[in-house]
Amino acid sequence: MTNLLRSQIYKLFHNTIFWAGAGLTICSVLFYAVFESMKAETVANGMPLFQYYSILFQNYSTGLPVLIFCVVFASDDFMSGAVHYYISKGISRTQYYLSKMTTCAFAATLYVVIAGISGTIISQILWHNLDGLLQINTLQLLFFFFSQIILHASYASFLVFTCFLFRSSVISSVVNMFLLIFGFYIVHRIEDAIWNSYVISMYWPVAMFQRVQVMTVAEWFSVVAAIFVIYGVLLTCIGIIIMKKRDIK
User: Fold this and answer.
1) 125: closest CA among 186, 50, 66, 47?
2) Is 242:167 a contact under the CB 8 Å cutoff?
């Protein structure tokens, strides 16, 4: 398992799609930052903490790069026949699935780090507010970034699951792109129609990228922990079962 994971990490850092996603993340953060800087209240008052948070993790600044990389990375071995090669060499299906899921979750974590670093540098250039950021509650900032890591890793786990379910990069891309754009609205409409008294949209990781900064620590812990259990644990177990039951061609 260690050697397999090491080889997957090696492939990650030598993957052009990953680095293209990193560039897309930086460009997206820059775009959102420039857009915020054009607002009248931002020009008058500088960059408040809420806007600093909001420019970092939009659906298309980190969610889209994570989607593109995970779908390509997880589906590529099915398209090339490498899955059959790995299994024929004695690697268990559980180990193979976990290696892909762990690598994609690690890539998602790196995108969070890239967004955080680039967002801090860009906000300092545009608003010179680094001193203000350093004066905020350090624990609050750590909670925010840790929650984003959990959310993005959970989202990566969901993407890997869909790739192993469909075994096609095209189908996985279409389905996940649709969910990235419309997933929150679909779930929200279901809430309105059926479970109006219970909010289920908060358990969709992408929907929480932008909402977590307005949550209390208690709300953060319960929701993010639930998302991790649902996507990081339960969905991974289901994915492993599917991997074991289906033929490898």
Assistant:
1) 47
2) no
C-alpha–C-alpha distance, residues 84 and 249, integer Å? 6
The mean per-residue pLDDT over the stretch 198-205 comes to: 76
pLDDT digits (tens, 9 = 90+) for 93-127: 899 999 999 999 999 999 999 988 888 888 777 77
Contact 28/82 with Cβ under 8 angstroms? Answer: no
Residue 144: burial class (beta carbons within 10 Å; 0-12, 13-18, 19+) = buried
Structure tokens at 155: 């989202």
The angle, 0 to 180 degrees and rounded to 10, between the axes of the packed helices 235-245 and 138-166 is 20
Q: What is the pLDDT of residues 203-225, one digit of tens each?
A: 888 877 777 666 666 777 788 88
How long a stretch of residues is the chain?
249
pTM across the whole model: 0.87
pLDDT number for residue 249: 61
Distance, in Å, from the CA atom of 172 to the CA atom of 4, rounded to the nearest integer, reads: 24
Angle between helices 138-166 and 64-80 (to 10 degrees): 30
Q: Are 210 and 57 in contact (CB under 8 A)?
A: yes
Q: Whole-angstrom Cα distance, residue 162 to residue 175? A: 9
Question: What residues have CB less than 8 Å from 4, skipping those under 6 apart?
Answer: 86, 91, 95, 96, 99
Alpha helices in the chain (DSSP H): 2-13, 16-37, 40-45, 49-56, 64-80, 82-88, 93-127, 130-134, 138-166, 169-193, 205-208, 217-227, 235-245
